[in-house]
Amino acid sequence: MGGDRMTSVSGQQHAADDMRTLFGQSTVVFAQLTGAEHVVETANPAFVAAIGAAEHAGTGIPLAEMADQRLLDLIGQVFRTGDPYTDRDVRALLGDGPHAREAFFDLTYEPYRDADGAVIGVRVIGVETTQVKHAQRLMAEHRALLEQIARQAPLADVLDGMARSIEDLAPDDVLVSVLLADPDGLHLRHGAAPSLPDFYNEAIDGIATGEGVGSCGTAAHRREPVIVTDITSDPFWRDFRDLAGRADLAACWSTPILARDGALLGTFAMYHRTPRVPQDTDLALAHLFAGTAALAIERHHIEQAQQAAEARAQAANDELAKTVRSEQTLRAAAEERATAAAELTAQMHAAAAVQAAAPHPEHCQLGGASGCTEPAELKVADSWGDAAWGCPVHVEEAILNVRSVFIASEELGGLTAYLNR
């Protein structure tokens, strides 16, 4: 009990650390503008970057030479009216070229006044909300995944949705792959990789876990993250370098997916098309979703075990029902045979009583049309229940010529006794 609680607390702490790493930093912007032309009296670099005026950075420059018309109109309105204004989710493009990124800010424009109360300028104070917006999207996606897991959605759907969410949420171009470990932990099977080419997924489906087997095989073997920043030069990728080249993959960071007891469940990999070193936010994102994948996979294993147990129980019930039906059939057949035997015995007893009551004829009845005057000494019968008395000669002829005829004399004990007389 204590160990489980410590594990739970540790997992919650890791999740909180991941969230802080992902969304714990925000950029504050500040500028003080003077006069009707809104001359930049002071401004921090974040403000200059936010309005896209890095090449015009400096003080003493009218804002009109740096900012777009919408910003000028809002600041002009505050300067004229003296009423502060808050502008939310202001979009800005920070940086340029491949390093450019979309950012969002909440900006407040406040008038500042001289000693007589007249407005002489505007202060711009704001904070970047990009991280907040990303956090909201991340938490929404994460909550949706947890709801899918709780609803027992198919594992393939959960993992595919998770991979697509991460690819959409990541600030840089990333391709996500999830591999699932075989029960023995010796091989990895395809789980989800919506953006990787089919030929690549087919080629790595079933790869062994072991030292130097790419990023994922090595991470699974070591039970720890493996970061390969440049596939073209890393020895772990020696056997897969050509395959990665065909798929246009240049970096791969793999994190093992582990069960609560430390058993290997699979790997979670983030691929990039250019060599890249992961930032703390990348590692936090990988750790967070590797934990989510572990939850989904463990839930799937539990469901499979339950289904297998239910199937075995159903098979046992079916076999028991079959055995009971067979026993009932055999019992019914036995009862039918017993009834038939009882009926036959009764008939035989009745026939014997009738025969016993019949008078013993004086002369042989087996002489045919010409008759026989010899004394009737022996009784013969057949399986049909017919019986007759005859002399020894005609009785012997009957036994030889009529099928299933036998001596019915109890005194002589049957045919054997007769022949040995």
Keywords:
421 residues, alpha+beta, Beta-Lactamase, 3 domains, five-stranded antiparallel sheet, 11 helices, 46% helix, disordered N terminus
Characterization of the model:
27% of the residues are buried. 46% of the residues lie in helices and 21% in strands. The strands form 3 sheets. It has a 6-stranded antiparallel beta sheet. It contains 11 helices and 14 strands. It has 3 domains: 20-128, 2-Layer Sandwich (Beta-Lactamase), CATH 3.30.450.20; 137-305, Beta-Lactamase; 359-419, no CATH class. The chain has 421 residues and is α+β, with helices and mostly antiparallel strands. The protein has helices at 2-23, 45-50, 69-81, 130-150, 155-169, 198-204, 214-222, 241-246, 280-357, 392-401, 415-419; strands at residues 28-34, 39-43, 85-94, 101-113, 119-128, 175-181, 187-192, 207-208, 226-228, 251-258, 264-272, 378-381, 387-390, 406-407. It comes from Actinoplanes italicus. Residues 154-307 form the GAF domain. This is GAF domain-containing protein.
List strands and helices in order, with pairings:
Layout: H1 2-23, E1 28-34, E2 39-43, H2 45-50, H3 69-81, E3 85-94, E4 101-113, E5 119-128, H4 130-150, H5 155-169, E6 175-181, E7 187-192, H6 198-204, E8 207-208, H7 214-222, E9 226-228, H8 241-246, E10 251-258, E11 264-272, H9 280-357, E12 378-381, E13 387-390, H10 392-401, E14 406-407, H11 415-419
Antiparallel strand pairs: 1-2, 1-5, 3-4, 4-5, 6-7, 6-11, 7-8, 9-10, 10-11, 12-13, 12-14
